[in-house]
UniProtKB/TrEMBL annotation:
<keyword id="KW-0808">Transferase</keyword>
<dbReference type="Pfam" id="PF00535">
    <property type="entry name" value="Glycos_transf_2"/>
</dbReference>
<dbReference type="GO" id="GO:0016758">
    <property type="term" value="F:hexosyltransferase activity"/>
</dbReference>
<feature type="domain" description="Glycosyltransferase 2-like">
    <location>
        <begin position="4"/>
        <end position="126"/>
    </location>
</feature>
<protein>
    <submittedName>
        <fullName>Glycosyltransferase involved in cell wall bisynthesis</fullName>
    </submittedName>
</protein>
<dbReference type="InterPro" id="IPR029044">
    <property type="entry name" value="Nucleotide-diphossugar_trans"/>
</dbReference>
<dbReference type="InterPro" id="IPR001173">
    <property type="entry name" value="Glyco_trans_2-like"/>
</dbReference>
Length: 311
């Protein structure tokens, strides 16, 4: 295997070197692609110093040296990456020594185009710990609940399996064949300033043949600190609903253009419309409407005269 590790860099000076150092020991990692996104701290200077640390470390910026967000930054990384396999690492996170253990075996099967695993948590500040635990309780491992591959991964991510699969795996735990991304012309949605990773993962699960790897223990660690965006938004607040609406709108438009299974299209459509209604009617009405929609999906079709469900 030969792997390009893509690290988007924005205001991560405190953590960046640890992230890079965690990827260097792997023989399979042939290059580490740093994409600096106009940080306001000294991240760029640290990137420049890291380039001299190891010839595998490469530094790029956007052509205009501007700030374009995580989606565009990862896309630039995909453009610059030259290896057969792609993996991702956030600049405030790090890999564990078992990061590619599953990949070494699973990718011997040429049918497999992507492998994903579990991510753990490291608390880097007391404020970060409190915010994270307030939102996610005592969840210390982000993972899926049972092994899966192929179509079952997409169904699991959309909540369409008979058992609860888990609705997310972290981008830091994904390794994908570059040819699979080229084949499907898949990139991150640059219009999403947040949730580009969730959008990308669901689309990836449809376009590519994914298989779970190590899901019972962490293969990477998410650094939780004072400035994590994931902990700042209160669930079902207007800001949360707005961001979820944009995510599911992106997925709805994509699903409308692709021959997804009918139950997958339906789930995406109903979730998109539930957040659409939440923004139009407010939280209390949204919550009641959402419950009614889940019980009876025909409500949307009848009340708003949508025809999407019959496509």
């Amino acid at each position: 295997m030969n792997i390009s590790v893509i690290i988007p860099v924005y205001n991560a000076s405190e953590f960046l070197e640890k992230a890079v150092d965690s990827a260097l020991p792997f023989e399979e990692v042939k290059e580490i692609v740093l994409i600096e996104d106009q940080s306001t701290d000294d991240s760029l200077e640290i990137c420049r110093k890291l380039v001299f640390k190891d010839p595998r470390i490469k530094l790029y910026q956007h052509p205009d040296k501007g700030n374009h967000g995580a989606g565009a930054t990862r896309n630039l990384g995909l453009e610059k990456a030259g290896c057969e396999f792609i993996s991702f690492l956030d600049a405030d996170d790090h890999y564990l020594p078992n990061r590619f253990d599953a990949e070494r075996e699973i990718f011997k099967d040429q049918k497999i185009e992507g492998v994903f695993g579990a991510i753990g948590v490291e608390y880097l500040s007391e404020k970060g710990r409190k915010e994270f635990q307030d939102k996610f309780k005592n969840v210390s491992l982000t993972t899926v609940n049972f092994p899966a591959e192929g179509e079952e991964v997409l169904k699991g991510l959309l909540g369409l399996t008979s058992k609860v699969f888990g609705t997310f795996f972290h981008l830091n735990t994904l390794t994908i064949r570059k040819t699979a991304l080229v084949k499907s012309n898949l990139r991150f949605n640059e219009n999403l300033r947040v949730h580009q990773d969730s959008d990308f993962i669901i689309k990836l699960a449809y376009h590519c043949y994914l298989k779970s790897g190590i899901i019972d223990k962490a293969i990477a660690i998410r650094g939780v600190h004072d400035n994590n965006r994931i902990t700042k938004i209160i669930r079902y607040s207007p800001q949360y609903n707005q961001r979820q609406f944009l995510l599911w709108k992106s997925l709805y438009e994509w699903a409308d253009a692709n021959p997804l299974p009918p139950d997958g299209k339906r789930k995406i459509y109903l979730t998109y419309k539930s957040f659409d209604l939440s923004l139009k009617t407010g939280f209390n009405k949204y919550f009641c409407t959402f419950l009614e929609v889940i019980k009876n999906p025909q409500i949307l079709k009848t009340q708003y005269r949508f025809t999407y469900l019959n496509r």
